Amino acid sequence: MSLSYLYQFENYRSPFWAFAIHDGHHIDADLESYLHIAPEDRLREEDPYTAILAELPFNRFVCGTSRFQLDLNRNKDGAIYLTPEQSWGIQVWRTALPQHIKDQLYESYDMLYRKITQQIQNTIDRYGYFVVYDIHSYNALRDGPTVMIDKVNNPQINIGTANNHSKWQELTSALMDVLRTGKDGQVYDVRENVKFKGGFLSSYLNEQFGDKGCVFSIEFRKDFMNEWTGEVYPQKLQEYKQLLMQTTDTLESYFAYER
């Protein structure tokens, strides 16, 4: 038995990256007999449509496998949700996973982190710097589909930057300013480190390369979909994608001169 993990790197001539590591819903067939969580419950905690948001003129890394098989935004010990405490109180597996399966999953984790590391190193070697948009989405209606959103504690867009070197604060401010206003003049609630501060992937890349670039962990409130049914709202999804698109000039202007 060899467990599959679906992912894709797309390389363009750019120092910038868009990651969608929680977009996937696929579970390897050899794991299905162990799985307890229902597909609709998985979908609610995954980040569907973030691969579409990541369709930017950047390099891309998109995962097609569910975070419930392997979560790349956790450290290795936490990358498999072995207890409900690791997964919003949800029991993921019917029984304890056999050691040989866990070993295969951890091998996939190590392989993927080697590939990510090499891709970012290649970008630095070519351009001297990098930026990663680590794109996610989050639930704001956990208590039920008809509950009013607590907008004080749930910004439309949360930018996680806690792991970044302080040298990137000027770029952070410029990026957030651009995200706050759409091309039609609509104003968006964009705040820093309110809901999320950046996960393990951000921490890892900053530890390895933080003097050469930074990771913006961009969490969109799931306004572009019904988080309980999975229905997507295409117009809102395109609004958010357009916001990301219009930040491209900000990145290019910032790095126009060697920093």
What does this structure look like?
Keywords: Hydrolase. It comes from Sphingobacterium detergens. One of its GO terms (molecular function) is hydrolase activity. This is N-formylglutamate amidohydrolase. It is a single chain. This protein has one domain: Zn-dependent exopeptidases (Aminopeptidase, 3-Layer(aba) Sandwich), CATH 3.40.630. The chain is of the alpha/beta class. The protein is 31% helix and 15% strand. A 7-stranded mixed β-sheet has the order 1-3-2-4-7-5-6, with helices on both faces. Helix 4 links the parallel strand 5 and strand 6. The longest helix is centred in the middle third of the chain and has 29 residues, at 99-127. The protein has 7 helices and 7 strands, in the order ββααβαββαβαβαα. The chain is globular and about 55 Å long.
What does this entry show, briefly?
It contains 7 helices and 7 strands, in the order ββααβαββαβαβαα. It has helices spanning 39-45, 50-53, 99-127, 169-179, 200-209, 234-245, 248-254, and strands at residues 7-10, 16-20, 59-63, 130-138, 157-160, 190-192, 213-221.
